[in-house]
Amino acid sequence: MKCTDLHGLFEALPEVLTTGEVCTVIRASESHLLRLIAQGRLPCFCIGAHYTCSPVDKHQLVIDPEPASIVREIFTRFLNGTTTAEIAKELNRREIPTPQLYKQTAAKSQKGKKVMWTHYAVLAILQCLKYTGAMTNHMVENPYIRAKNYRRLPKSEWIITEDAHEAIVTKREFDQAQEMIRKVRPAQKKPSGIPNVFYCAHCGRKLSRTHGLETYFSCRSPYVHDGMEQCRAVRWKRGDLEAVLIALFEKQVSAFLEQQSILRQRIREEQPEQFRKETTQLHKELERLSSDKVVQYARYRDKKLSREDFLELKQQMNKREQEIEQQLKEIQQRQEEQSVLQAAAQSGEQLADQLNSADREQIKQIMYRLIDRVTVFSDEEIEVSWKFSDAIQEVEKRQGVA
């Protein structure tokens, strides 16, 4: 049974069992899972990219030869002095699938996706204890039921079972690799307030952020891919980039607020009372036409009106009814447009109020909230997609400006 099947099973349990019975089933499942973990036997739905289930025992891992050979190569090259960045670049050149991409391709979900090994992907393999034959469990946990984010546990709380499956590298090779990995004191991450909305125009990947005396945004593709020289020009200092963005933001806001005056004028021209008055008049005319049809039919029945004249009058009244129905539809459409314009006007007033009372840092925060994407072509050219650009275009379209 797949993990998704188990999830669906537990979702359906309350419909067929009492609360006490559901608790009993869950406790039994947890006990079974813990027994498997203690024995070093992996649950059938938690399989890595370099191992697969044994055809004899679904809870026993066996080596998947093709990706496992890449793990051995990574350890060998690293122990021989090759840096993780150089290893990543070589694997990208040969278009070797990353572990995640290998799993997805095996599931026929990501065929054709471009390979992207990075320094961090190579480092993750070098630091993975599983390749020594040890089974590692209880590395993360949910802080509460159905939590979307996991909490990573310290290594002292992991459940490690040695010799649980066949090793890809020896324990000695693994320990040597750990000694060679440069130990860097983890930096205390401070929230920068800057969402990563910056993308390289040439490879389409998000820009990396580097910290020091200055913060820089740059594309890392040239360091792990051959033939990506255009990406080297994609490098901006945070201060310079924000200065350009703020200037563009001011122009965008100016255009947006200009449209607000058009909105307010349009709203003043068409008040809800006007719509109700027009609609009432048209409905009254429809009622008169309906009564006229009855009167004319009575005249025709009493031989006071010829058949030709009756049909002609009926045709005229039918035509007028169709015209009225069309007018009612147009009024309804105008009412819907009015609602959209009022919502846009209200959003514009809120934005104007926020900007008027904001200092420079607050203006930058508002700007980043309204940026959808920044595409960087070089250290001199960027393209910004704003979240309120569509609103301006919609207003222009409705007003006939565009």
Sheet with the most strands, sense and barrel status: 3 strands, mixed
Q: How much beta, percentage-wise?
A: 5-15%
State the secondary-structure class.
Answer: mainly alpha
| Number of contiguous helices | 13
Domains (count):
3
What's the end-to-end separation, in Å? 57 Å
| Poorly predicted segments | 1-7, 398-402
Q: What is the overall pLDDT average?
A: 76
Strand order of the largest sheet: 7-11-12
Anisotropy-based shape? elongated
SSE run: HHEEHHHHEEEEHEEEHEHHHHEEH
What would you report as the Rg, rounded to the nearest angstrom?
Answer: 34 Å
User: What is the number of strand segments?
Assistant: 12
Task: Determine the fraction of residues in helical runs and give it as a percent range.
Answer: 55-70%
Outline of this structure?
By secondary structure, this protein is mainly alpha-helical. It has helices at residues 3-16, 19-38, 65-79, 84-93, 99-106, 119-126, 171-180, 221-224, 238-269, 272-301, 307-356, 360-370, 389-399, and strands at 51-53, 61-63, 135-137, 140-141, 151-152, 159-161, 198-200, 208-210, 216-218, 235-237, 371-376, 382-386. The chain folds into three domains: 1-38; 49-180, Alpha-Beta Complex (Hect, E3 ligase catalytic domain fold); 239-399.
Using brief descriptors, characterize the structure shown.
402 residues; mainly alpha; Hect, E3 ligase catalytic domain fold; three-stranded antiparallel β-sheet; 13 helices; elongated; disordered N terminus
